[in-house]
Amino acid sequence: MKFTRRPDLDPQTRIYIVMLAWLHQGVYGKMTHIAQYYQISRTFLYQLLLMANLQLETLFSDTKLLFQRDHRHLEQLLLLLRLEGNCSLLSISSILKALEYHPNSVGYLSQFFQSAAQALPSTLLMPSKSFVFYLSDEIFAIHTPILVTIDARSTTILTIELASDRSADTWRVHFEALEAHHFFSLGMASDRGLGLVAGYRAACDMTLWVVDYFHEFRDLFELQHQLERKAYAAIEKEYDAAHKFDHAKSASNLAKRLQQYETAHHACKQAIARYDQLAMLLHLLREALQLCSPHGRLRTREDVRTALTLLVAMFEELDCAAITTTLKPIHTHIDDIVIPFQQAEAIDAELRAVVPHDVLDFLVLAWHHDHLFYQSQSNPKRYHHRERECWLTCAEGLLGKEFDTLKALVFDKLDSIVRASSLVEMVNSLIRPYFNSCKGQITQEALNLIMFYHNHHRYKSGKRPGKAPIELLTGKP
């Protein structure tokens, strides 16, 4: 994206923009509103706010030019601009020059970040054996593959590696390095990358591998979008045909336009019915893949296999030629898809030996809605919150003093079931902006710095507010 200087924004206007941004810090959506109103980027708005904060701190501090006198404070500023602000070296240099801080050259900044990262490892080292569930993926900087493995529970980046290729041997060495650093795999979730899966099985034989549901069913849900677009196109054609029929005058033209409308109307009904049928089956597919039934019973592997087999047969009955090709891999991968429910069966048996059966169903339903609460928006979020509190209240009434202990046990066990590698995709999305700011020219030292920052950066919201990934992994603040 090309940024141009706005000559119509005079200094007084910029001061007013900063004042608005200052007054509305923390107000949801206000920064976007200000940026849209003045037709500026949010990046520029945050840069204005940062520069104003720095100038005010300098103005009202007892010691002027604080950053120049306190070199450590300057280093913290540079790291925040680079890691929290995702600023490029050129942008950081411009900010330092505007604030009249020295040194401020791009060469100095490059040397500073390289020296800061050289002391950081590319793979975490644990003092003793740590059993974790891997989420692994590949991300590309231009054409160079970067291999990433994180812990499923804490989202800690265990290792990040700038690789020459993504072959099975490269991935095998990747996982063996983790074992050498005292990480031992309970299993791995990933997409079906050939080198990734083969390398994991070579390094961690006889361990669990879980296929990622997003990649497994992505083509099927993409087909829904295609049918939706076709349905809207058919509706538009029917509307046009009706409009032409209304304006026909002669008897012959009326008959012709009526036939065209009836043809368009029939095609429209078919397109809408095809979309509705696929949407309903996809809804049933989502429900079938939930860990528990609406009554709170954890689903078994055979139950899910039977449901998937039936749903695939129903998908095949749809009047859609493209769906046959889409369903072929799902047919052959059903055994892999139901693996998480094998874990669920074992956990169900373990919990039923400790928790009363009726109470366990209540706690499973509470966990289910708690899980969906963090994935939902607006109205569904409020619904899942009410349901979670309702089932927790039911369980608390039956358990009494044992409620907190058994609730923590059930939630912890169910959280250990991994069905997707979406968290590693989330980590990749956090890493990607750094690639953009350096135009894809990334080094291993820069990756080490990004990994260190991610692992020690505290989450602001979600299921882990106020916790850093490394704190969740080690249990130590």
Number of helices: 21
Secondary-structure-based class equals alpha/beta
Distance between the termini: 40 Å
Order of helices and strands: HHHHHHHEEEHEHEHHHHHHHHHHHH
Shape: globular
How many strands appear in the DSSP assignment?
Answer: 5
Beta-sheet strand percentage? 5-15%
Please summarize the sheet with the most strands.
5 strands, mixed
Strand arrangement across the biggest beta sheet: 3-2-1-4-5
Mean of the pLDDT scores? 88
Count of spatially separate domains: 3
Low-confidence stretches: 64-69
Summarize the structure.
The protein folds into 3 domains: 108 residues, no CATH class; 110 residues, Nucleotidyltransferase, domain 5 (2-Layer Sandwich); 122 residues. It is 65% helix and 8% strand.
Question: Can you give a write-up of this model?
Answer:
The chain is of the alpha/beta class and 477 residues long. It folds into three domains: 11-118, no CATH class; 130-211 and 447-474, Nucleotidyltransferase, domain 5; 214-335. Helices cover 65% and strands 8% of the residues. The chain has 21 helices and five strands. The protein has helices at 11-23, 30-38, 42-60, 66-69, 71-84, 89-98, 106-118, 168-180, 194-203, 213-246, 251-288, 301-316, 322-332, 334-337, 339-352, 357-373, 378-399, 403-415, 422-437, 444-456, 469-474, and strands spanning 130-141, 144-151, 157-162, 183-190, 208-211. Strands 3-2-1-4-5 form a five-stranded mixed sheet, sandwiched between helices. β4 (183-190), α9 (194-203) and β5 (208-211) form a beta-alpha-beta unit. α10 (213-246) runs antiparallel to α11, α11 (251-288) runs antiparallel to α12 (301-316) and α16 (357-373) runs antiparallel to α17 (378-399). The model is unreliable at 64-69 (pLDDT under 50).
